[in-house]
Write a structure and sequence with these properties.
The chain is an alpha/beta fold. Helix content is 40%, strand content 18%. It has 12 helices and 9 strands. It has a 7-stranded mixed sheet with strand order 4-3-2-5-6-9-7, sandwiched between helices. Strands 1-8 form a two-stranded antiparallel ribbon. Helix 9 crosses helix 12. The radius of gyration is 21 Å and the shape is elongated. The chain starts with 6 loop residues before the first helix and ends with a helix. It binds S-adenosylmethionine (SAM). The site of S-adenosylmethionine (SAM) has 23 residues, from strand 1, helix 3 and strand 3.
Amino acid sequence: MKNLSDISVIKDILSRHGFTFSKALGQNFLINPSVCPRMAEACGADESMGVIEIGPGIGVLTAELAKRAKRIVSIELDTRLLPVLNETLSDFDNVKIINADVLKTDLKRLIMEEFAGMKVSVCANLPYYITSPVIMHLLESKLDVESITVMVQKEAAQRLCAEVGSRDAGAVTVAVNYYAEAQKIFDVSAGSFMPAPKVDSSVIRLDVRKQPFIALDDEKLFFRMVKAVFAQRRKTASNSISSGMGLPKSTVLQAITNAGYGENVRAESFTMQELSVLANEISRLQRQ
Ligand code: SAM
């Protein structure tokens, strides 16, 4: 089996297949040999488990996952990589490549069809241009997966793993926190990739919650409110929420008072619990 993180091996494979990197598809391939084994370990892959990978590239992480897990299904958008993967993963009979856009893939169905009876995790070095959409697609689909271990830009990792209510938190932090417990696993320098991106990266792991830890009357309304709060985070909650959600300011002020907060409170520093109380109060007033 070839060493898929060796630059000369990668160059040889890619030139034989006439492959050139696509910036638009976020193609930065890993060349640091220590990263993929660590990622495969961090995602908890073992011989009883199924793993969904997104964007295998030339298969460097796929091979590490295939050594450890029972079955891998890897989704790659770039058709030009199919013959490459056919060559690089020929030693494994537990890998299936699907040529598709992950954002247009019905992952619930994929899990049912490909991983019946197995525990499933997601592991991927994500294309950075769609980091948040992919993570939200995975979480909002409410997939039956144990964890999601992904490489993302370092700044994105900081936001995704921030404590809700802290300065680093944003709407995406709240959304991730609702569905999962996030933690940073390790940092990866820009020089670990070919071509090297401009920024460093981090591997993070999201452990998917089996039960929601806040009680929401209206999940959609909660996320609309959170979006409004962080779109204008320096404004008072009454201003950001009323303008962002298109609600009368008097209704929002009433909800804020009913929830026990001061009229000039700013919701960017609210905890998940506090955000949920306010959203439930707005929902209750709207139903009246
Ligand atoms: N896993 C490889 C590695 O670590 O070297 C490649 C990672 S590279 C950062 C991202 C990969 O995602 C590329 O192979 C790219 O073609 C693929 N990709 C980009 N957009 C995609 C999409 N929407 N759906 C599936 N794969 C995608």
